[in-house]
Amino acid sequence: MATILPYTHDNITLAAAALERGDVVAFATETVYGLGALTFREQAIERIYELKGRPLNNPLIAHVLDIQHARSVAIIDGWRPAELAMAFWPGPLTLILPKRPEVPAVATGGLDTIAVRAPKHSLARVLLHAAGMPISAPSANRSGRVSATLASHVAEDFAEADLIVLDGGPSRFGIESTVLDLSSDRAVVRRLGAVGADAIAAVLGTSVEVMPGAGQSTSPGSSEKHYAPRTPASLIRRSDVERETALGPSVVISAGLLPSLAGVDAVVIALPEDPDACAAALYEALRAADRAMKPRILIVEPEGEGVMWDAVRDRLRRAAAG
Ligand code: TXA
Ligand code: MG
User: Fold this and answer.
1) Of 22, 258, 259, 271, which has the highest C-beta tally within 10 A?
2) Average pLDDT score over the chain
3) Architecture of domain 233-319
4) Would residue 237 be called left, alpha or beta, if left means φ above 0 and alpha means ψ between -120 and 50 degrees?
């Protein structure tokens, strides 16, 4: 059974010992919860894939304390990773870099690159200190499903597993890190997140391409259908809410004003109108929509502009894909 443990010194020590033994541990980060094992423990890494039901070719992010620490798993050449780490670490930016040959192939889905990120949440940092080694961790959800932003989400998804979940409260950002591919001379955003392409370009002084889901190594994590509730979901325009809800029972997820829904069988889940708050509430809203047990989820596509709205829209499109 998954056990939620509060963020105390003793529980961090317990979790670090579990990692050292080769166990998998779930823990809070500022983006979403992670399901972690020591990067250099091949069997423990295999166990992550098994628990998640994740395809073995979908690589994991190695979590580190800083750029120095990143050198134990990645080859850091040139000034770009150091400048970006200075600007955005610790925080929600993942860098794809050439991998060191010592890193087990299973930790990178067989690729010769590795994704690295220094998380900002103090729980993740204290755990990394206690473990003394990089921790590879995908988001702590079943493969293809909605990520976890609360300890209880992880416990629900892995109810059957013998797993410690370190509770660091609700994830502040609520969506996964921006993934930036630096494995070539180009700089390519492979997944949208809280760190925008413009902010990255300002640090690099060069242009940044944005190609979420594109490229060889992007793997299933950026595939179309992802972050999906169990209930069929579709993305609709605000002006179509009345027509769509009249077609039958549904859950409506919306940030902002809805038309009158009198006389229709609809459960409404409201999202905040502020983009940061909306992102933070997003995955709990998708999970709540599943719990409402209606045959359809209608997601009103938000229209706001800016980095966070772009990232929110990206996740909603994937939740509704397929
Ligand atoms: O915010 C986050 O990044 C969270 C927290 C726990 O740190 N982690 C996370 O991990 O979202 P995951 O495994 O759910 O997503 C990692 C993404 C996937 O799309 C994966 O395909 C991509 O990063 N990725 C990892 N390593 C890669 C590599 N070497 N090359 C290309 N893409 C890679
Ligand atoms: Mg994930």
Assistant:
1) 271
2) 95
3) 3-Layer(aba) Sandwich (3.40)
4) beta
